[in-house]
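G.,

No rush on this.
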Amino acid sequence: MTITFNLYSSEGCHLCEQALQLCQQAKLEPSLQVVDIVEHEHLAEQYGVHIPVLERLSDGQKLFWPFTQQQIEELMH
């Protein structure tokens, strides 16, 4: 399946772990790529104080934490 969503996160971020669990519950995982912002300076600058952030790659629409499973499911459609 094609990657259609990025979850911007960072290792050791407990909110990011919660967001990933919500993505898994919404069955988003096959089309999800988790991106560690620490590995990309521009992403760290852009999302450093906002992670986790879920982005739909087709149009750049983003969900900023806190978000719910229902919001993830709406973003999927």
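When you get to it, here's the other one too:
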Amino acid sequence: MDTGFLQEVWFIPIIIILALFDAVMKAVAMWRSARNNHLAWFVCIAVFNTIGILPIVYLVLNKQKALN
């Protein structure tokens, strides 16, 4: 009998960890993009769900500006 993918024990903690990671990365990147007046980045980060990839790209590319 197939138990199904959603009933696996390891699946739920992974989803929770990914959701928390995405939420933290998105919040930090959106805050910094708003402070740096980067409207296009702010909108892209808000609209696209990339599991934290787009916020990390923004934070890495704009690291020097955020430190000043």
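Residues 11-67 form one domain. Helices lie at 11-35, 39-47, 53-61, 63-67.

Enjoy the weekend,
O.
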